[in-house]
Amino acid sequence: MKHLAIIPGDGIGKEVISVGTDVLEAAAQISSFDFDGEIFDIGSDRYLETGELLTDEDVSELRKKDAVYFGAIGDPRIKPGVLEQGILLRMRAVFDQYINLRPVTSWFPLVPLKREVPFDIHFLRENTEDFYMGAGGTFGASSPEAKVKIEREMYKLDIKLDARSSNGDDFAFEIGLLSRKGVERFADYAFRYAEARGDKKVTLVDKANVCTHIYGFQRSVFEAKSKEYGIDLEYMFVDAMAMAMIVRPETFGTVAVPNLFGDILTDLGAQLQGGLGMGGSGNINPGGLSMFEPIHGSAPDIAGQGKANPIAAVLAAQMLLNEMGYPDEGDILRNAVRHCLDAHMTTPDLGGKLRTEEVGKEICSFILNTKR
Ligand code: NAD
Ligand code: IPM
Ligand code: MN
Questions:
Q1: CATH of the domain at 317
Q2: How do residues 226-282 score in pLDDT, each as one tens digit?
Q3: Alpha-carbon dihedral 222, 223, 229, 232, rounded to 10 degrees
Q4: Does the residue 207 lie in any domain?
Q5: Which residue's C-alpha comes closest to atom 11 of ligand 2?
Q6: C-beta 354 within 6 A of ligand 1
Q7: What parts of the chain have a pLDDT lower than 50?
Q8: Nearest residue (CA) to ligand 2, atom 5
Q9: Does 38 fall in a domain?
């Protein structure tokens, strides 16, 4: 029996996680997978009522679970960054989920390219460092000193900047940081992942021609790991990678990408799969508490209208099953998604006429009719 924390969150997060939970229940009915789910009220409504984001009590309750199934956060009533940093990024950091696995797979006929080419790129997005550390601030003539405090599972960091500019202007800064241990474990995961998939190379995406310090450092660690594992390492600058994903997506397998660029490239990747409603992801702490979520946000523009495509959340549930040791059950979820696409039983974003919960029902009945 697996104990799952279920955090629907905001907007369409609630709608797609409701489908995803039904789908997991259907999988449990036809297989040896079994779970209980506890719903956690974490998100914008609670924040507006109580001022709480992710509390210490949430953290200790979540720690008791085997995995987290998460919808989305984000609310137009709240200043950008408050929920994102206070809830989602905090969970990734507190639970040290240092890999964000985001597959980008061709789902015919949804591939919006000139060529009907099959591809299966597995993005491994580093998930706790880079420009996502919240390491920023401002300084100016009246306040030349800026302090930055960072807490991660592996370390605490205190940075003090004594900054003086010649013109007395105000400045804002955001520091991107990579630690040697952080890059090493990221590279280890990437090379092991490539090995397990039978990929002959790892592609490392960066901008080492501009951000030379941070990404030059990352390259040197990956280079050493490439030799250690006997697997080739290929470099791609992120701008060229965006282009190459459109022109020759079939040439990539395991792709390691730092946090910020990984965020951007995987929205592009989601669109290569048919849209944001098709992108699942896993925030992974190998051996620790992992969290599975669609890569899309709360989509306030369509929330509450039954238009949200639940497939991304279902593919996140598939990743949860894989990671929990139930890959066959995961495959059944995937087959159910394939069935909905083939039968044109989809939401409007994929050209269909169904509502979120109707797609969910179709997926569940496909699963329940699967012979084991
Ligand atoms: P978004 O992903 O919510 O939406 C972008 C566009 O894609 C919208 O037009 C939306 O309608 C569409 N879309 C997204 N998911 C869809 C689905 N399942 N089915 C059909 N259409 C879908 O991104 P945004 O609008 O930039 O952000 C909205 C809020 O969500 C912001 O507050 C943002 O910070 C937050 N956000 C949260 C997460 C997360 O919780 N993991 C991820 C991204 C954005
Ligand atoms: C995602 C989201 C988050 C990110 C935001 C909401 C913090 O865009 O999961 O892709 O940037 O990682
Ligand atoms: Mn994103």
A1: 3.40.718.10
A2: 999 999 999 999 999 999 999 999 999 999 999 999 999 999 999 999 999 999 999
A3: 100
A4: yes
A5: 263
A6: no
A7: none
A8: 84
A9: yes
Ligand 2 binding pocket includes 22 (Cβ within 6 Å): no
Asked if residue 349 belongs to a domain, the reply is yes
Residue range 59-111, pLDDT digits in tens:
999 999 999 999 999 999 999 999 999 999 999 999 999 999 999 999 999 99
Question: Cα–Cα distances in Å, from 125 out to 196, 206, 257, 260, 262?
Answer: 17, 11, 5, 9, 5
Query: In terms of domains, do 180 and 304 share one?
Result: no
Q: How far is the CA of 279 from the centre of ligand 3 (A)?
A: 10
**pLDDT of amino acid 63:** 98
pLDDT for the residue 143 = 84
Ligand 2 contacts CB of residue 93 (under 6 A): no
Q: Are residues 57 and 187 in the same domain?
A: no
For ligand 2, whether the C-beta of 241 sits within 6 Å is no
Cα 243 to Cα 194: distance, rounded to the nearest angstrom: 23
| 67 and 184 together in one domain | no
Ligand 1 binding pocket includes 302 (Cβ within 6 Å) = yes
Query: What pLDDT, on the 0 to 100 scale, is given for residue 57?
Result: 98
Number of domains, the chain: 3
Give the closest residue (by CA) to ligand 1 atom 26: 297
Cα-to-centroid distance, 100 and ligand 3 (Å): 11
**Residues 156, 189: one domain?**
no
9 and 92 share a domain?
yes
Instruction: Output the residue whose Cα is nearest ligand 1's atom 12.
Output: 299
Domain boundary pick from 246, 272, 298? 272
Report whether 5 contacts 62 (CB < 8 A).
yes
Q: 9 and 65: one domain?
A: yes
Q: Long-range contacts made by residues 144-147, C-beta under 8 angstroms, separation at least 24?
A: 146/173
Structural domain of residue 143, as residue ranges?
134-175
Query: Is residue 102 a part of any domain in this protein?
Result: no
* pLDDT attached to residue 10: 98
Identify the pLDDT of residue 301. 98
For residue 250, give Cα distances in angstroms to 122, 147, 240.
11, 45, 15
**Ligand 1 atom with minimal separation from the 16 CA:** 18
The distance of Cα 89 from the centroid of its chain, to the nearest Å, equals 11
